[in-house]
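Support request, please re-run this one:
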Amino acid sequence: MAGSLINTADSVLIWYFLALNSFYGLLLALSIPEIWKHWKLSSTDEVSRYLTSDALPPISVLMPAYNMESSIVSSVRAQLALQYPQHEVILINDGSKDDTLERLRDAYDLYEVPPAVPTSIATQHVRGYYRARKAAGLMVVDKENGGKADALNAGLNAARYPLALAVDADTMVEPDALLRLARVFLSGRPVVAAGGTIRIANGCRVQDAQVVEARLPRRSLPLVQVPEYLRAFLFGRLGWNRLGGNLIVSGAFGLFHRQHLLEIGGYATDNVVEDLDLVVRLHRHLREQGDPYEISFIPDPVAWTEVPSDLRTLGRQRERWHRGLILTMFRHRSMLLNPRYGRVGMVMMPFFFFGEMLAPVVELVGYLLTGFGLYFGLIDRQMALLFLAAALGYGMMLTVWAVILEEVTFRAYARTSDFARMLLFAFLEPFGYRQLTVAWRLRSFWSVVRGRTQWGEMRRTGFQDVQDKAA
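Re-run finished. Output below.
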C-alpha cells in the first residue's frame, strides 16, 4: 500500500516537472525568432542612427543610492555620459550615513534649489534638492532613508521627462544601452515598459564604472550564476514577449512610461521585490482600463551588475527574491486564472504561482519521497531516475541551449574557453547549486509566515576589486 502511494506520488511529481520544463522548452522555442529579430537590429551602425533622431523621447535616469561614497562619483559620471540625445540623471541619496552627498557636492559643485517638485507620490521627508554647476543634466535629491522603492518614488516625483529608467547606482550601463532600449518606443506599438539584459560583472575589467572587457568570473560561485542569468534573460523573457509580455522588468535596468507609474502610485514600499510587484500592478491597471499595451524585453541593451560571491549573501538574495514572489502572488491572487486579465491571468500568473512559487516545495517533496522509497525498497531505481531526469536533466539541457544561443548570437564573451567553461557549469548547476537554491527559496515561506520585511545585508566586493582581480 505504502509503495503504491509513493509510486503514484512520484508519478505525479514527474509529470509536474515534465510539464514545467516543457513550458520552459516552449519559451526557448519562442525565443529563437525573437532573438534573431533583435540580433539583426543590434548592429552598432543601426543603433548610431538614433543619436540624431528627434523622435526619441527624453529620459529621466533614476538612481537610488545608499552609503556609496567610494563609487558614487564615477557611477554618476558614467550615467551622464550615456549616448542619448536628451536625458537627465536624478540621484536619490536615500539617507546615506557616509559621505555620499559630500562626494557629489565636491565633484559636481552642487547648489540647493527651491523644492518646486510636485509630490505625486508620498515618500519619506526630502531634505533638499540640488543642481550641479559642473553637470547640467544632474539633479540630486537628498532624503531620509526609506528604502529603494521609496527612493525611486522620490525620483519619479522629481523627474521631468516622459520616460523613466530605474537603475541601481552600482549597475554599469553600457554607453549605447539607452538608445537600444528606447528604440522599441519608436516601433508604433503601445509599449509602456521595456527591460534589458543584466549580465554579471564579476571578473570583468572595469574602468570608470564601465565594463571595458567582458570576462567570466574566476570563482565558481559567481560563475555558476552566469548560465543561470542567460537562461532567465535570453530565452525566458524573450519567450514571454510572444506570450503577452513580461511579468518582470528587472529593477536594476528597466524603462517605463512615467505617467503610468504615477497612475498606480509608484513603487510599493512594503514589498522586498519592488520590480515584480510594480509590473504586476501595471498589468492589472492597464488590463482594467482596457487599453492595448506591451511590456517587452529587449536583449541587446546590456547593464552589468555584481552578483554575490559568498554563499551567505547569495542565500539572502535568493530568499528575498522568492519571498517577494510569494507576497506578490498572494496580493494579486484575484488575477489568478481570471479571464478578465487575459493572458496575464490565464497564463502568466498560473505559471509564476504553480511553476515558480511552488516549485521548491514540490522539488523537496520529490527528493524526500524518492529517497524514502529507495531506502525502504518501495520504489525501483527506474522510477527514481525518471524523477531526477524530469526534475534536473531536462532543465540542465535547457540551460545548455541558453548558453549555445548566447554563443551564436550576441557572444559577449569572446574566448572559446569562456564558452567551454559556461557549458561545463551549465552541466554542473543541477548538482549541489540547485539544491542550495531550493533550500534558500524554501526558507522564504517561513519568512513570510513570520512577517519578515528586511532585505538582509547584501555584501559586495565592489567593482574596484573586480577590476584589480581581473587585471
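The CA atoms of residues 134 and 378 lie 74 Å apart. Residues 463-471 have pLDDT under 50 and may be disordered.
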